[in-house]
Write a structure and sequence with these properties.
Length: 156
């Protein structure tokens, strides 16, 4: 998709960002109804405003509409057992279901990779739902590798 602008989010993007997050939540509910529940507000407005003010939400815009978003957290890791590192952790990346498969996710990842380089972060990390095979394949295609695997013991 050539007519996509990647930029930092503004307050006016909220409704479109919230709609995209509802799509993600619906997938999570479908995959893990024992953990996730359907809710009207997936992205609370105050949380969104705070992230906008901190420039930690990036959006993909096409035809004056937000069609994708990526939110991240800056983490400082320091302990006696680990090398001190500053990383960007991708908290969520989502593309509107009508616009998937058009390279928008790749453009969002490239934008955040540039932030990592420009601000001299030590790494870029994310977590992905094990059932989200399309996203896992996409992240691997973009060069992400497995760092750890979370496991659970089903009690039922």
């Amino acid at each position: 998709m050539k007519d996509v602008l990647i930029r930092y989010a503004v307050i006016e993007d909220y409704e479109n960002a919230q709609a995209i997050m509802q799509q993600v939540q619906a997938l999570h509910v479908k995959w893990r109804p024992d953990i996730y529940k359907q809710t009207f507000t997936v992205l609370p407005h105050e949380e969104y405003k705070r992230a906008v003010n901190q420039n930690t939400i990036i959006v993909a815009e096409s035809n004056e509409k937000v069609v994708g978003m990526l939110s991240y957290i800056c983490r400082h890791v320091e302990s006696d057992k680990q090398v001190t590192r500053d990383i960007i952790f991708i908290d969520c990346m989502a593309v509107d279901k009508e616009n998937r498969g058009k390279g928008i996710g790749h453009k969002l990842i490239e934008f955040v990779k540039n932030i990592v380089k420009e601000k001299s972060f030590d790494g870029l990390e994310l977590q992905v739902n094990a059932k989200n095979t399309d996203a896992r394949k996409m992240y691997e295609k973009y060069g992400f590798v497995k760092k750890s695997i979370n496991m659970e013991y089903p009690l039922q």
